[in-house]
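Re: [help] complex structure
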Amino acid sequence: MARRKLVAGNWKMNMTPTQTTELVNTLKPLVASDDVDVVFCVPAIDIPAAVEAAKGSNIKIGAENMYFEEKGAFTGEISPDMIVDSGATYVIIGHSERREYFAETDETVNKKVLKAFEHGLTPIICCGESLKQREQGITIDWIRQQIKIAFIDVTADQAKKAVIAYEPIWAIGTGKTATSDQAEEVCCAIRACIRELYDADVAEAITIQYGGSVNAGNAAELFAKPDIDGGLVGGASLKPDFGKIVNYK
Ligand code: PEP
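Output below.
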């Protein structure tokens, strides 16, 4: 069975709750689609407003981060229960901005992935290489290591439901998109790595997105590649163009 495409927006640190209601209402008719699954990943404080505004539509709501403990003395963190109770069903884990500015590691990514599954949240697990690593020719080795650590102790049934977002760091927020061939090469290698870790069924079921300056002009070419099952979209997810990305065909 053909995999469904999943287009997820990452709002980053943008939009107040009031602005969230307005933006979801603006985008709602534009992202309507029977063929493509749509997720808006929003700041934690915006989740209730986003869930309310998205009611009755095809939009699902996700968080942008989550802590791996259940509760307690972790000032400023957001727990899985808080996210679930707010009505979100997805959570981005290990975005490169979290790794760069908030010291997240492959090990914390793994703890968060396990916790997300424990609470019935679908993790969107980010991986990606720096420009230096690409120039050194170690992209595939690097990504394989990130994937292998992220999936430690994740069961095959859980892995089938996971989403991996391949996001080359040099392409995020820079306007520089990986070519569709570069993106496909890595997404194909990720699927091969999942096949090695689990089996062909899991590799065929898992969703692998590309992220990095996806826009209305390049989405169709990227999403036409056999191992690219949609995109994780930053800047363009806050604009009406997001509707064109969802309806890329
Ligand atoms: C992102 O935030 O995950 C992202 C890919 O950003 P952008 O689309 O702006 O490059």
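Strands lie at 5-10, 36-42, 59-63, 90-93, 122-127, 163-166, 207-211, 230-233.
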